[in-house]
Amino acid sequence: QERIKAEAAENDAILSANDAQKERQEALAKIQAEEEKTKSAIEEKDAASKAAADAAKEEAEEEELAKSEKTQIEEEEENLKNAYARAGELEEKLKASQAARQAAEDATKQAQEGEKKAEQENLSEAAAERFAKELAGQQQAIAANATMRLEAAMAERAKAEEQAAEEVKKAASASKKAEEEEQEAKTAGEEAAKAKALMAKEEEEAKTAHEAADAANGREEEAEKKLAAALARAEKEQEEAQKEEEEDRKKLKDANDQFVQASQAAARAQERADELEEQLKAAQRMADAAQARAEMYSASAASNATALEEERKQAEAWKVELERRAAAAEEATAKAREDADVKAKALADAQAAAAESAKIHAKSDFILDELNQTISDLRQKLMATETEKAAAEREESLAQQKQLMAKEELLSIIGGKGVTQQGCVCKSSFTYEDKQHTGCIDAVSNLKAMGKKWCVVEGTCGSSLGDGQFFDTCPPLTKQGCSCRNSFMTKGHLVVGCTEERSQGQPWCKVRETGCGEQNGDGAWWDFCV
């Protein structure tokens, strides 16, 4: 029964180990599937992050280009207004030249009327001719001057009209291009919104994959617990088998001891039987001697009758005693032999039981070796799984870092409260040079800040301070609490920081936050610098 129990326990241990191995394989398969899903999610998330970054970059470039185009349109509209103004001036000059020409024609008419009047008044021919020539010369000079001015005005007007037409064409082309750029910027904004939505979806899928990985880890831990329980049961069963083997060995030793004792008792009984046989032989010799003496003394029966009878009785009594002792010796010898046979049989049974126990234990040792080998294989697979799990965790960490960098790049564009120039987030409070600080500070001892305000940021964004903390410079703030862009385009050229262009000497900048400050004609938000 104990052997059957041991075999049943061993079978249970083997089944438990097989179940644990099967659960382990299922857990490994699930972990591999989750790792594939995580890898796919990470790749899709990287692609979405890259697409979002590219879309944001293209949106910024298109926004700058659209602003530049709108600025050029404004300049061209200004030039067109100036051309229209010059055309008006030329028209006024043309009207003046026409008035002068009309005046010249009126003067000519007056001269002709004067000539006629002179003729009517019978002036002298020489005086009239001289007066007419002088008057005609004056009128011709006035007319020639007026004609020249009129021709110049006409030429300037034609040139102004050509310039105005050209400016109108340029303005129309620029307006159309600006509309196209605005449409492209709108499309880029929609794509950026889609990229943000896709990034959020990828984050959710990554979160789901992480939860699935946690569940797989839980199942793996449960399998490890089952494996540990199986190992504990196997160790316990091995200890019980060793105890049973020790008991069998003890029983075998006791049986051997009993056999030795029985052999010794049989030897002693044989020695006693030999002694009794020698005594019986001695008694027989004594009886024979007594018989001889009786025969020798028979001749003198009369004289020795009484002594002979007494001698005969003693010999008969001694013979009976010797026979009794011989029977007892034979009985003792038979019993000793019977005890020796029983003990020999018990020894043989004990030896057979010991051999069977050794055979069972040998089989148990073989099964235990197989179980130990299975456990060793499971441990190796567990180590391989842990290695793969560590690699997956590293890949997940890299994906999270890439996602964080994409978020920081996006924050550097859209800005916000506590957001630095590189898109990092300032800590609510931090310690620097044994002092507690909040927000952006002017600590010039940090030479890496290049004299700009800076703050200690969350995580490892920005640059290292050398004391385990990381920092980044803060953007310039405006009067309404907005933050200036690192650089922006105005009038077709790049501006870094604040500028006084078109603001009567008051510095201003384009801001990162949509809806902060004021909005100009090109759609960008701006505010005056502090």
UniProtKB/TrEMBL annotation:
Keywords assigned by UniProt, alphabetized: Coiled coil
Chain segments carrying region Disordered: 26-131, 154-311
Bias type Low complexity, positions: 282-294
Coiled-coil zones: 368-402
Residue ranges with Basic and acidic residues bias: 26-48, 103-120, 154-241
Domain of life: Eukaryota
Protein's name in the database: Uncharacterized protein
